[in-house]
Structure formats: C-alpha cells, structure tokens
Please model this.
Amino acid sequence: MGDAEIIPIGTRGRPGRGTGKAPSSAARSLAPGARPAAAAQRKAAPKAPTEPVLEHDDEQVIEIPVADEARVPVTTAERSPLGGIPAGDWLGAFQHAAREVFGDQWEPQLARFLAFLRRRVTGDYVVDEYGFDAEITQRFFMAALRPIADKWFRIEVRGAENIPTDGGALVVSNHSGTIPVDGLMTMVSIHDTTGRYLRPLGADLVFKLPVVSTLARKGGATLACTEDAERMLSGGELVGVWPEGFKGIGKPYSDRYKLQRFGRGGFVAAAIRTGVPIVPLSVVGAEEIYPLVGNVPSLARLLGLPYIPITPFFPLLGPLGLVPLPSKWLLEFGEPIRTDEYEPGAADDPMLVFNVTDQVRETIQQTLYSLLMKRQSVFR
Model:
C-alpha cells in the first residue's frame, strides 16, 4: 500500500487551517478577496492599553499582557444621537418645518391649527341637527376635493350668479359617472364660487355604509326624504338633489347625457311648499370619468347594490381601474325657477308638480346639449 495522503479537516478552503502553520505574508497578499489596505490599517493601529496578569509556574512567574476592553469614557451626548444638537438648531429646524407645512405665514397658521385641535379635543365645536360639521367640511373635505376639481377635472363654473347668496334654494342637477363623484365636485365648486355649503340629499344606500354614512353626515348630507328637505329649505339652507338617482349614474355609456326619469317630483313639491327657487344645474364631463360598458346584475343583487360596473379599466386593472379619467368638466347654473308665486296648497296639485318637474328636466337637458356643442373635446 502506498503512502496515504493526509487531508486536513475543517479548512473550508482557507489557508492556515488544519496545517498548524499560518500562511505567509506573500500568500495573504495573493489570496482572493484580500484587503491590503485594511491589513495595513490594522497593523498601524495603536495597541490597546494592557495590564499584567500573573500566572504561576513551577519554575517562574510569567507576565501575560491582556487587552483592557471598553475603558474609554462615554458621555450622555454620545449615547443619544440627538443629545449633541444645540437648542438653537432645534428651533431653526422647527421653524423650517413649520414654514414648509404652513407657508411663510406659518405662525398664525400654526396658531389656528393648534386652536382647532384644542376645540376638537374639548368638544367646543358646533354640529347641527343633521350631523353637519362645518369646520371639518371646510378644513378637510373641501381641502381634499379642491385639487381634484381644479387640477384633475379643471372644472369651469358658469352662471354662479344665479345661486342665491342667502336663504333657502334647491339645486337640481343631472346625475352621471358610475360613481357619484359629480355630487362632490358640485359641493366644492359652489363653496368656492359663492361661499355657501351645498346640503346634498342622499339615497338610503349612502347611510347604510359604515364609514361613508358618517362622512356624509359630517359633510352636510341627509336622507332624501320630503320631511328633511322641507326642514332644510325652510331653515334657509342650499339643498342639492339629483332626481335621476342610480338610474342616472348607472346608465350605459351609449346613453350618456340623456336624462332618465326624474321620479315623482317630490323635490318640486318640497320647493313649492317652502316657496324657495329651483336652480337647474347641468354638468358635462362626469359621463366620461368611468365609461360604463357592462354590468353584473346577479352579483349586484347578491351584494345588495344597484349595479356592479364594468368599465374599460375595471376590474381588468384592479384598483388602478378606479382612477377616474381626467375629463374636462363644465358646470352651468340656469336661471332660478320661482315657486313663491303659487297659491297655498299648490304642492298638492299633481298636474302642477308634474309640469314644473318637466320644466326643470327640459331646462337641464337643453343646457347639456348646448354645452356639448361648445366643448372642444372630452379632455380639454
């Protein structure tokens, strides 16, 4: 048998392991992945302070130096990453952050914001009998909707002078868009042009949804019933109604800008009974944000929804398909239709209510045709 070759165990391919010998300096310099600079730094680094440790041997006492670990003093400022920042730098950083958030007039803005927080914490704010919170609506809802109206849809408002500056009035509008975004855009447009809050009359489904119902109440909406509508109008509120309902927002794209039935005219009866003017509103642009090309009625009935929309982008693109297309919007308020000239009890006359309802519907429809002729294109 020939001489067996002895293979070191546990070397893992590293020199100097299993042989009992350390690799030479030349081998270290030629080894793959060697870092000469790091080795030189380690060689040049000063040695840590040592102290002698005595070990007793049978013949002599040997002193073995042992490195002293972590005897360098550490201050509190070094332990905390923010401990060494001077107070002046903190103040400058705070002022810079406040200016970025609130603008150049950051001091009064910050003071108003802190006052707002104090009022919300202490409960020193007003909510009306319908749940409307004017402060939350102006500071948050309108602030969130305004960039969408100005930058995304580029809404152009016409005939805002036809909206009464005070007192009760009923704004009647066409309804479209698959998702009722037109109601929100109408609210922010009226507030920015007249300073008044539009109080929408919403469907039952709006107030059955857990989160949506709370937000709708705080934003000024209430249930679309005759009693609430008459109370608001008698109290001098600007009330908004969309008589087409789900038939309007859920109609296919092929029927765009063709008004659906306006119901039984309950909104007209409320306006006649309270003697407030009716302001017709025509909205162009909302039909194109979610072009409705299909529906799933069986699934809609299962979920208790009026329809399940299918658009060119939803559900194909998932959540991305919920982003509305940036169509150009035109809002035109028509001349008010007076109702204070009718005799008491005229609201109980079905023929009179029908005629006024038809007048409002035809005014909106003809204005839609006129705006479509004036619009250059869908997206500009």
Summary: The radius of gyration is 38 Å. The longest helix spans residues 350-374.
